[in-house]
Amino acid sequence: MWHRLGHWLLPVLILVAFGGVWQLIALFYPPALFPGPTATIEALIEVAINGTLWSNTWISLVRFFTGYGLALLIAIPLGLLFGCVGFLRRLFDPLIQVLRPISPIAWSPLAVLWFGIGSAPAIYIIFLACFFPMLLTTITAVKSVPAVYLKVARNFGVGSGMTVLLVILPAAFPGIMSGLHIAVGTGWIHLVAGEMLGAQSGLGYMIVDARNFLRTDMIMAGMLVIGVLGLGIYRGMRALEDLIGRQWGIGV
Question: Could you tell me the sign of the dihedral formed by the alpha carbons of 236, 242, 248, 252, in that order?
């Protein structure tokens, strides 16, 4: 019981201590320059009451999960394919290594030209931010599957397709999930950046709009919401990972 209580209590105490330090630092600055937690919470209540918070949050979440989902649907099958077929991996590796270091933000001017103003450029940037972490970690995870697993599958007459589904995918699952976790972080960061550059709605746009009106308390409120939502997405992924791991008998 005490162990379980400490598991939840200590993180809460750290958050309270962080809030206290934040408030202490804010005492030495004008509220318009560095608002404290009290002013930030008041601004958060303001945008919650007028509905701005909910509409922008919903739009940002839709954009994020659309870009993330598209990256997952493309990167994971490609990662499995390249991880299993060495010839294709070597063939496409130079192209991947050329494109991978290019920041998704560098694509934003082209994204606006190609897709116009709205959700599409932000979704495209999120897709790029998520795609390469998913692809590369999946390739590495598949390559790391012990060869004995494949030999056993062949000895039992399991076909190539079923070997991928029943042997390689479960064995590579922890490594693949590491890439999905990395992609959540990079995608969420670039969501806000994409909305700051070309969108007319969303949490990133809300922060830019607050900057234009010198509402630093609103900026802090938007940053707080982004952080809390990021934590919620991470926790949800961990729960899903544990559920799938238990189904496959994998300790993750």
Answer: positive
Provide the token pair at 40: 């930030």
Q: Is the pLDDT of residue 86 over 80?
A: yes
Name the one residue in this structure whose structure tokens are 């729960």: 239
The domains located in the chain, with CATH, are 73-248 (1.10.3720.10)
C-beta contacts of 235-242 below 8 A and 24+ residues apart = 237/177, 237/180, 237/181, 237/184, 241/177
**Do 138 and 181 touch, CB atoms closer than 8 A?**
no
Give the rounded distance of the alpha carbon of 49 from its chain centre: 28
Q: Which two tokens stand for residue 250?
A: 């994998």
- Average pLDDT score, the chain: 85
Q: Is 164 within 8 Å of 80 (Cβ atoms)?
A: yes
* Alpha helical stretches, state H, 166-215: 169-198, 203-212
Instruction: Determine the 3-state secondary structure of 126 from DSSP.
Output: helix
Predicted TM-score of the model (pTM): 0.85
Tokens at 207, concatenated? 């922060």
Distance CA 207, CA 52 (A): 12
Longest distance between any two alpha carbons in the chain, whole Å:
73
CB distance 229 to 222 below 8 Å: no
> Which of 88-92, 109-113, 197-201 has the weakest average pLDDT?
197-201
